[in-house]
Design goal:
Number of helices: 31
Largest sheet: 7 strands, mixed
Number of strands: 27
Radius of gyration: 38 Å
CATH topology of the largest domain: Rossmann fold
């Protein structure tokens, strides 16, 4: 029995809401999307908008809030970022149609789309220079697979992926949303949470591999998937789950997806989540892009080029011909700098055709998306023509070939569309004059009705010979012909009476009409709506013409992105003095004058130079490990990271920040740098360090590049030293990889004499008058100490604490020498710290030092070059005495 307190409209709302659990319901009410009950409470809090009420339900006020339809995208973005999903319920008919069913009939409404983090397409909801991936992980008979799609560009890929690789692959892709089977939700929850992605469990039916195959065949309208390659059952299940989810969220209107591409995990450098985070490849540790490698080196001028750069940095290639082809393209554009600059000027005028194409396919686009396709293809043609006139390398020539062959579509769009159309097709006015005769006539009626009526009036005057004849208009009769009673007799008699139809007689005037005038009146009154209908029809025709060429347009977009990235790398190399690396299949790793691209960029802004350093891990078939010692803040971590980034950049296809670089292919990149805890899982800083170190030791092969910083520092001294010692031996004996190992355990420097391929290196400092000066130079050899007390003083610790630390350090070092290395006896004899008995810093001796006196005696303006050189030798002698 129906609840009498529930209105028909609220009954409709509750029905739609019940069919879409787990999502906020945007319920269309005229010019607003309204929310009720708990949805209203949650949305009002999340959006910081007013919460009001409308009507009652079960004798209680119904909470309500709303947002304007024209501003809905901004509110949607806020809700999606805060973890909500939103169901959009639109009006499927106008109120007039509803009233035909009865005065109290409710306008038909239903959900036309479910907005989720992985299914965004609107330009305002997306970052133009980043992908927005939706991923799905499936497991069939213990075989796992990962598929991912960006519906805003049509990118669709799949790869074999066991559960153990899911974390690293999700870290590479950074999807916004991950689909898993309900049966696997618990297995994947922590992994997906670590990636800060939304986890969406689906029924097992969505992951059924047989049903998935049928979905894919229907999507591409083909009889067999063999044309796309061979896919495992798990891979088909993952792809099929994505298609099923898109069908659910888009309510049957599937996006334009490119053919699925099978990605080979062995073709890219393996980088785990911790390493990506430590190296700050695409996101800084502080959050956001500023401070990341991507932000520091991005010189791309198109959205597609920026997205390609992120993919290349996230998955550097292990394919030598591919790497060499990319370097060839960068070298050519570096040598042809003026040509490269001209290309970049043309590329800057290229819109994002991928996303425009996707919006058109989903009926969320408009005339501006069509002009984006037109303008993009026009620019593509110019770029292809320019490249064809050069001896560009194969990569650029191949990209240029994808930019040609679009002349017919460009001509069609150029003839049909105005230069700068409105955003929405429903606004009209985007079809160019002269393209469609019917539209031109209708627009003339709409815009020039008076002149058309005047022209008809002149025709009637000529036909009747009555100069006083007028065509007038009122709200009762509409358009009519009016003349005096005297002249009316002529029009009432044959033959004019056959054409002019009497309508009304007044005291002084007689009014007529004609068939032509009635038809013209109808056309004038309906001209505005008719013009819009014609434009909508032409819009559909043009949209279909574009979608028919979606494949070639997608190829052109990829070609433009490839050219943009090559010119971006060339610009970076030219402006920042980067050099072409030699990448081969050897075990070489020889960097001369290497620099950290992010740190160097930051120092450049402050006007400070970056101190370049060499690194040589070349060692035939044996492992090659540098054991790096030196004080904190001397630059050990920077040195470690810069060498990892140089290898990554080289294999991504870029030149590198170094004087020269010879890099044998790196298969895996591992980094254990910095300190972090994971309190949510009950992991201390030391536990996180050990977990990440264990992952490296269990996975690194002999082609890996490993950088480790301060292993064992999170526990007791001897525990930490023993762990660090054992890790070093394992890297040498079992992993047999190239590695940089930074430590404060100076005892480990003894390993260089025991293990072939292990060398000591140190970051040099200069101690002067109790202060430590960081030189940031890496040299062969071992540090004599860590200078921790001096660094503490630089950090601003109170002088009393610093001096007390010096006393304790001196006592420990002396006691260790005198007691055979036993620190505890010395510790037992140390008095407790107190401010009063803490030795104060020794005052400087009165007067100047001999060096200061010598400096003051020099008069540089009065010295000859020879005298200045002799003075320099004198100062040096004073320092060495």
């Amino acid at each position: 029995m129906a609840n009498p307190t529930v209105t028909p409209m609220m009954e409709q709302y509750l029905g739609i809401k019940a069919a879409n659990p787990g999502a906020l319901l945007f319920y269309r009410m005229g010019d607003f999307y309204e929310m009720f009950f708990k949805d209203a409470v949650d949305a009002a809090a999340a959006l910081d908008i007013a919460l009001t009420k409308r009507g009652k339900h079960n004798d209680e006020d119904i909470p309500m809030c709303g947002v304007p339809v024209h501003a809905a995208e901004g509110y949607l973005l806020t809700l999606i970022r805060k973890g909500f999903r939103v169901a959009i319920a639109e009006q499927l008919e106008n109120p007039a149609e509803a009233k035909k069913r009865g005065a109290k009939s409710v306008v038909k409404r239903d959900v036309v789309r479910l907005v989720t983090p992985g299914t965004l397409t609107e330009e305002s909801l997306l970052e133009a220079r980043r992908h927005n991936f939706l991923a799905a992980w499936a497991e069939v008979r213990d075989a796992g697979a990962l598929a991912w799609v960006d519906i805003s560009t049509g990118e669709f890929r799949v790869m074999t992926c066991p559960l153990t690789r899911l974390g690293p692959e999700l870290a590479r892709l950074a999807p916004r949303e991950v689909l898993v089977s309900e049966a696997k939700e618990q297995d994947c929850a922590d992994i997906v949470s670590d990636m800060r992605a939304a986890l969406t469990p689906l029924s097992r039916a969505s992951f059924d591999s047989q049903a998935a195959e049928k979905r894919l065949l229907d999507l591409y309208a083909i009889g067999s998937l063999e044309a796309f390659g061979t896919f495992s059952r798990a891979e088909m299940a993952a792809m099929g789950a994505i298609v099923d989810y898109l069908n659910i969220t888009q309510k049957g209107k599937l996006p334009l997806l490119r053919r699925p591409v099978h990605e080979d995990g062995a073709g890219a450098v393996q980088i785990d989540a911790a390493t990506r985070r430590n190296l700050e490849l695409t996101q800084a540790l502080s959050g956001g892009r500023d401070g990341s490698l991507l932000h520091a080196i991005d010189r791309s001028v198109t959205a597609g080029g920026a997205r390609l750069l992120e993919r290349r940095l996230s998955a550097p290639s292990r394919n030598l011909p591919e790497i060499h082809a990319r370097h060839d393209a960068v070298r050519f554009l570096l040598e042809q700098s003026r040509f490269s600059d001209d290309l970049r000027a043309d590329l800057k005028r290229c819109p994002d055709m991928d996303r425009a194409l996707s919006r058109l396919a989903l009926d969320r686009g408009g005339p501006r998306d069509m002009t984006a396709i037109r303008n993009g293809l026009e620019q593509a043609g110019r770029i292809a023509e320019a490249l064809e006139q050069t001896d560009a390398p194969d990569l650029l020539k191949t990209a240029a070939r994808a930019l040609i062959g679009h002349e017919d579509l460009v001509a069609l769009l150029d003839a049909a569309l105005i230069a700068e159309p409105p955003l929405l097709a429903r606004d009209g006015g985007f079809i160019a004059a002269g393209y469609d005769e019917d539209l031109d006539r209708t627009r003339q009626l709409r815009d020039e009705g008076r002149s058309v009526i005047a022209k008809m009036q002149a025709e009637y005057i000529e036909a009747t010979g009555i100069s006083a004849l007028k065509i007038k208009h009122n709200n009762v009769l509409g358009y009519f012909i009016e003349t005096t009673a005297t002249h009316a007799e002529k029009m009432l008699a044959p033959p004019l009476s056959e054409r002019f139809i009497h309508r009304q007689t007044t005291a002084n005037q007689v009014r007529f009409t004609t068939v032509e005038l009635s038809e013209l009146e109808t056309r004038i009154l309906n001209a505005g709506n008719h013009a819009l209908e014609i434009e909508k029809r032409l819009y559909t025709t043009l949209k279909n013409a574009i979608l028919d060429q979606s494949g070639p347009i997608g190829e052109a977009s990829r070609g433009l992105a490839e050219i943009d990235l090559a010119t971006a790398f060339a610009t970076l190399a030219r402006n920042d003095n980067w050099t072409e690396p030699k990448v081969d299949d050897s075990r070489a790793f020889e960097i001369s004058g290497g620099r950290h691209p992010v740190v160097e960029a930051a120092l450049k802004r402050s006007g400070e130079p970056f101190i370049a350093n060499d690194c040589d891990l070349t060692s035939g078939t044996t492992p090659a490990i540098w054991l790096l010692t030196g004080p904190n803040m001397a630059g050990k971590s920077t040195f470690l990271r810069q060498n990892a980034l140089i290898a990554l950049l080289a294999q991504a296809g870029s030149f590198v920040p170094a004087k020269s670089a010879h890099i044998g292919i790196v298969s895996q990149l591992f980094s254990r740098v910095g300190a972090a805890d994971d309190l949510a899982r009950g992991r201390s800083t030391f536990m996180v360090e050990m977990v990440e170190t264990a992952a490296i030791l269990n996975q690194a092969d002999d082609r890996a590049l490993v950088i480790l910083d301060e292993i064992g520092r999170g526990t007791a001294t001897y525990d930490g030293l023993s762990i660090a010692w054992a890790v070093m031996e394992h890297l040498h004996a079992s992993n047999r990889c190239r590695a940089l190992f930074a430590t404060h355990y100076h005892e480990m420097t003894a390993l260089s004499a025991k293990l072939d391929g292990v060398e000591n290196a140190t970051v040099t400092v200069k101690e002067w008058d109790g202060e430590v000066i960081f030189l940031h130079e890496v040299r062969k050899g071992a540090a004599d100490r860590s200078y921790g007390v001096q660094v503490a003083r630089l950090a601003g610790l109170p002088n009393s604490v610093v001096e007390r630390a010096r006393v304790v350090l001196d006592a420990l070092e002396k006691g260790e020498r005198e007691n055979g290395g036993k620190k505890q006896a010395v510790i037992d004899d140390l008095p407790l710290f107190s401010v009063s008995n803490t030795p104060q810093p020794s005052p400087k001796p009165a007067g100047n030092s001999e060096l200061e006196d010598a400096l003051k005696s020099f008069a540089p303006d009065e010295m000859s070059p020879k005298e200045a050189l002799n003075a320099l030798y004198e100062l040096r002698a004073l320092l060495t005495d």
